Amino acid sequence: MRNEAGIRPMGWVTRIAAMLGESLRVQLLAWIVLTLIGAICVNLYISFKSADATAALVADHTLLASARVIAEAVRVDTNGTVEADIPPAAIEMFDTGYGDRVFYQVMTAWGSLVTGFPGMPQPKVAEVGEDGTFRQDEVRLIMLEHPIVGLENEGRISVTVAATHNGQYAMRRRLWLSDFTKQLVLVLLAGLVTIIGLQRGLAPVLRLRDAVRERGRQRLDPLPPDMVQSELRPLVHALNDHMERVQNQMAAQRRFVSNAAHQLRTPLALISTQASVAARESDPGRRDEALQALRASTRQVTRLASQLLTLSRAEPGSRRPRSDTVDLTATARQVLESQAEEALRRNIDLGLEAEAPVLVEGDGTMLREMLVNLVDNALRYSLESGRVTVSVAQQDGTAILTVEDNGPGIPEGERSPVFERFYRIIGTEPEGSGLGLAIVREVADGAGGSVILGDGSDGGLLVTVRLPIA
Ligand SMILES: Nc1ncnc2c1ncn2[C@@H]1O[C@H](COP(=O)(O)OP(=O)(O)O)[C@@H](O)[C@H]1O
Ligand SMILES: [Mg+2]
């Protein structure tokens, strides 16, 4: 069967199972209720069995007593005739108000009926109660063998007494009900106590839920682990760890934004001043000078803004990672061409050592940005008339890109912090923001590679980037 949405309606069993699976409280409660129902059923059966046995026992006692009274009334007179004058008490003991019918029969050992109802069924064993049918009535019957003084042959008679079940069943019902009620009260009491225990046990979990829910967006201080039972403390610890990570990340983000604002403010203030100077200057030569400075400052801000943008794009999770197949050799060639003018201006020998295409998988724009920053650093920090060499090669499934210069290099102790955002080595002369190497590392990580700083052969810096081959 399908409804309009084309989805088969869930069977009620699955629906109940789904509902049970969802809430811990409902789940535990369901188990308790099932257990209680089971206990009640077993209890019902056991108490019925015991009430049935007791009522049958009582019925048999009455039947036997009645049979005795009847047997006592049997006489043999002087002619040898067997007589019985049944006393009313023998029958009256069944008169318990349930309208039971009573039948009896006295037989001689040789099988002739002395008195009573002919054709009654005969129990096989004496003095043991048995169920049977007589004249369309379900009856309980018992047989008693009794010696009679003066009786010929065997000298015994057998007395059979039968009664319908009404009284017996009424007693069974009463016994059963009282027994069952007692046990039911106990079971329900146990269930109630369990449910109260369950509620109390779950209370800390609910408190934890409320504590988490009530927190404002900014509240990330740890939750006290002892607010829940020991089994749940790992959960609170995990929550606290997570909140700490979020807190650190938020702090880093705030630092980054404030650093970025600082970095932008300085050149913008400079631009404003230079613009005012240029506007006031009447001498064309000096105005040109001011405008040149203005243009340089603008370039710096633009570069900073574009670096910020690159960094935010390179961050993990900031956008869908692209995986183009990129030829590192071709990318390096393009970057060197774009930087050739700057190299020429500073009289730096900028060279590429690469033979074959080296294909890697990654974001082409980002990889290019990484190379731009590395070459830019090499040109910027190496000496006038120096040498900068970029090489691309591949080895054992890894692409190896190196950028080497013969500038001052980076001392060992600074090789880790220079990768941090906005970090610049104290005393670094040329302008910059400290974002270049942060971008390099972010891009290399994003492409599944690594970057290390080392010593160049002429004492300069050697940057080695390793990337997996496509
Ligand atoms: N090739 C290099 N030679 C010497 N020092 C370098 C080189 N590249 C980077 N550095 C140092 O590392 C610091 C961080 O570089 P980077 O993250 O690119 O920021 P920026 O270039 O904007 O200062 C620079 O300030 C500089 O002191
Ligand atoms: Mg740089």
Please characterize this protein's 3D structure:
The protein has 470 residues and is an alpha+beta fold. It has three domains: 1-214, no CATH class; 231-311, Orthogonal Bundle (Helix Hairpins), CATH 1.10.287; 321-468, Heat Shock Protein 90, CATH 3.30.565. 51% of the residues lie in helices and 18% in strands. It has helices at residues 12-22, 24-72, 89-92, 166-214, 233-280, 284-314, 328-345, 364-381, 436-446; strands spanning 74-76, 82-84, 102-108, 113-116, 130-134, 137-147, 156-164, 324-327, 349-353, 359-362, 387-395, 398-405, 450-455, 461-468. The protein has a five-stranded antiparallel β-sheet with strand order 4-3-7-6-5. Strands 9-11-12-14-13 form a five-stranded mixed β-sheet. A hairpin with an 8-residue loop joins β6 and β7. α1 (12-22) crosses α2 (24-72) and α8 (364-381) packs antiparallel against α9 (436-446). The radius of gyration is 52 Å and the shape is rod-shaped. The model is unreliable at 1-6 (pLDDT under 50). The site of magnesium ion has 5 residues, from α8.
Poorly predicted sequence stretches spanning 5 or more consecutive residues: 1-6
Main β-sheet description: 5 strands, antiparallel
Number of strands: 14
By helix and strand content, what is the structural category?
alpha+beta
Which cofactors or ions or other ligands sit in this model? adenosine-5'-diphosphate, magnesium ion
- Strand residue content: 15-25%
Number of helices: 9
Determine the oligomeric state from the structure.
single chain
Strand order of the largest sheet: 4-3-7-6-5
Order of helices and strands: HHEEHEEEEEHHHEHEEHEEHEE
- Radius of gyration (CA) equals 52 Å
Name the helicity range: 40-55%
Instruction: Compute the average pLDDT.
Output: 89
How many domains in all? 3
Describe the global form. Answer: rod-shaped
Cα separation of the termini: 50 Å
